[in-house]
Specification:
The structure is a homodimer. In chain A, 40% of the residues lie in helices and 16% in strands. By secondary structure, chain A is an alpha/beta fold. Chain A folds into two domains: 144 residues, 3-Layer(aba) Sandwich (Rossmann fold), CATH 3.40.50; 239 residues, Rossmann fold (3-Layer(aba) Sandwich). In chain A, strands 1-4-5-15-10-11-14 form a seven-stranded mixed beta sheet, with helices on both faces.
Chain lengths: 445, 445
């Protein structure tokens, strides 16, 4: 048996909200000016009311709206797959499974929350969404979601990526998304930056600032976010809840769960439904994997920091390399984030989650081994998870069941594989000295 | 209910061989020199023995080897999906379903036969395979299949495509395939052409000649073919057999079955298992869809012609535009073939299959409607099928059930969508006068 499938009736009816089950309360977002927790009504200027409620909800299970479930069934439930060929190639005694989130139309886990956020906004009378995108995964997921509810989606795409990755932009256009090279002249901050730095290639920080300004200054427009916040991780728990059902169907219990981490939503949504097992003393480890070039969980500090480089967001308590940190241009664009989701950061702090980091060349080697054994070409981000799986599998015993989240395919990342094949991928570890300096710039509250 | 799924135990154990059920015998391949039917031993110089046997088998069902089924389970059975959003957008009374063959690792139906051909060759002691590829779909499918059985795969890729479509080449490399810009200096014919035409951009005809020469002149190497021949259509019937089971599970009978046609393997594999219904007098239509730029079934003649432009293959009785026909550079590269599978051609001749042709702009419009309603971005080839589905659905009644083969996704064809969005796609119908001239060049036997 290769794949464990669920039928549509088995698609979860509720998301799992970990907040009431956490051993400690997640520190709230804080207003940088007042140092007070941000009020819900302040967040609702840019986010849907329902999402803001979910951000602090104490209900353990939250209904997935029927309209969202209907869109989910376009690709969900996703398969849980036994990676038997990979097991053989490694020579491991452990069993390896992967949850295949690459089967969604945009090719990753991202639409799990994009569809939910689009739905809530639509339901609350909003017809336009804005967001930023770097590598393009999130922008395409939101464009797809917008098409499902007949909404206009404006994506501020970092100018450098906009020019280097025309295919991602085309994918967004195919779903009707409007994609702009940021900085644009559509926002005040964009205009200002273009005036000051006419030749700038943009940055994720600038793109966030533009998308947020656009939402904050237009009554018919709100902002959608691809990771980090509690409600995003909540929506992603549909992944872990399916895995739980699928493993139960074949009488398996995971001993090691692995995911790559940028902001933390694919890994969070995947393992959070299993956290209670760990809290109950069961033998289960959760491993977050990140690039050595952007080692927030492994090398960062656990402090309050801005969510963005442009310093327009509230402060979040998280593992961070400092919001001024500009990650080097590694090919796993989705993992180039200076911080981590507050929920994930807290669990790392409490030693309930482990973190590992790898170089990009070794993770691409792992990705190629996966492609040749299991068939699917992984996204560069997913390669980090695969590398950790291989390393754990080598040490594992026959009692181990390793499960990982195959967060996305690499169909739109072939330029990165090209660089790998041509020997042009560079290994880089962010120097401790630089991390120290960046950390010093973080405001202490 | 959106998707009809089968579990792995329901994956067909046998392919369906239509040959014994055809109302007339398919005319055999003929040796151009002797005008006699080609002998099996002549074909076995380049093809696996088992494939040559299947080419003329009179057994109605042929076992799918267990090793092939095992590889199939990496993505099969594939979902049958109700295109409810598309139905709504068109305002049709009919039900529309699509068989989603895009979920395979290479993204199309092609591996159904690539895996079978690789297996048979491996089983017969062959470790190297050669083939040609134009757009790259077939070359990547064979590279994927080769990786599964530890075989070396050499792909002769038309030089123009090699240079314009680096991503397809990278996909092949990811699976270990070796991809060369044809003409190469690895074959005699390649060397000769490079000497005569140093600046040539290559052609599919030249690439076929190189791949065949390579196989014919190396004892450890054979050739694998992506469409046209009987055994290829046989392997593709796994698609139609699954559809039959899936429709039975929901108590549906198709009234219209639609597929795009290049050589005819995706459409053939899809509808042939339903042919007996038609022969039994049931209300069911089979519609083959092709580009107006390459209208072999709608405008070609039914005669013996070479399978390739280079005139190295046997003669096949088929609808053809003449083997000297060089199709214009439309974006559905997989449909740029001058002929059609002999089985399909015979059924068209007998009026058991209808043929329709469309312009490329209107089919891209159809593809975008599909992407915005059903989510998946279709391959340019698949857009032809979708256009015909939409046209039929507009005329259909509530008693109609339209089923089509969603042969592949468009993740590697975004340059074509770019041309469409920028208004740069040109509509072109191959002129009747030109067809007449090309037909006159076909040798009559």
């Amino acid at each position: 048996m290769k794949k464990v499938l669920l039928n549509e009736e088995e698609l979860p009816k509720k998301w799992y909200n970990v907040l009431p089950d956490l051993p400690e309360t997640v520190p709230p977002p804080v207003n940088p000016a007042t140092k007070e927790p941000v009020k819900p009504e302040q967040l609702e200027v840019i986010f849907a009311h329902e999402c803001v409620e979910q951000e602090v909800s104490d209900e353990r299970f939250i209904d997935i709206p029927e309209e969202v479930r209907k869109v989910y069934t376009m690709w969900r439930p996703t398969p849980l797959v036994r990676a038997g060929n990979l097991e053989k190639a490694i020579g491991t005694k452990a069993k390896i499974f992967y949850k295949n989130e690459s089967v969604s139309p945009p090719g990753s886990h991202k639409p799990n929350t994009a569809v939910a956020q689009a739905y809530y906004n639509k339901h609350e009378g909003i017809n336009k969404l804005t967001t930023e995108t770097g590598a393009g995964q999130w922008g395409s997921a939101l464009s797809f979601a917008g098409a499902q509810f007949g909404m206009e989606v404006k994506v501020y795409m970092v100018k450098a990526s906009f020019e280097q990755k025309p295919y991602r932009k085309l994918l967004m256009e195919s779903w009707g998304g409007k994609c702009f090279a940021s900085p644009t002249d559509l926002t005040e901050i964009g205009k200002k930056i273009r005036k000051e730095y006419p030749d700038t290639a943009g940055s994720l920080g600038i793109a966030i600032s533009e998308a947020v300004e656009d939402a904050a200054t237009h009554g018919d427009t709100k902002y959608a976010i691809g990771s980090v916040l509690n409600h995003v991780l909540l929506h992603q728990t549909v992944v872990g809840l399916e895995v739980e059902k699928q493993l139960a169907d074949i009488n398996m219990e995971p001993t090691i769960m692995i995911g790559c981490v940028g902001g933390g939503s694919n890994f969070g949504g995947f393992f959070l439904p299993f956290l209670s097992r760990r809290l109950d003393g069961k033998n289960i480890r959760f491993i977050a994997v990140e690039p050595k070039a952007c080692p927030s969980l492994t090398k960062g500090g656990y402090v309050y920091d801005y969510g963005d480089t442009g310093k327009v967001t509230p402060l979040l308590k998280m593992y961070t390399l400092g919001s001024s940190f500009i990650p080097p241009a590694i090919h796993a664009g989705g993992l180039r984030y200076h911080g981590d989701a507050p929920i994930l950061s807290l669990l790392k702090k409490l030693n309930l989650v482990e973190a590992q980091s790898y170089y990009q060349r070794e993770v691409f080697e792992a990705g190629i081994l996966f492609a040749r054994t299991e068939g699917i070409l992984p996204a560069p981000e997913t390669n980090y998870a695969i590398k950790a799986v291989i390393e754990e599998a080598k040490k594992a015993t026959e009692d181990d069941t390793i499960v990982f989240n195959f967060s996305g395919h690499g169909h739109f990342d072939l330029a990165a594989y090209d660089a790998f094949f041509r020997g042009k991928l560079e290994d880089y570890a962010y120097p401790e000295e630089e991390i120290k300096k960046a950390m010093e710039k973080i405001p202490r509250i």
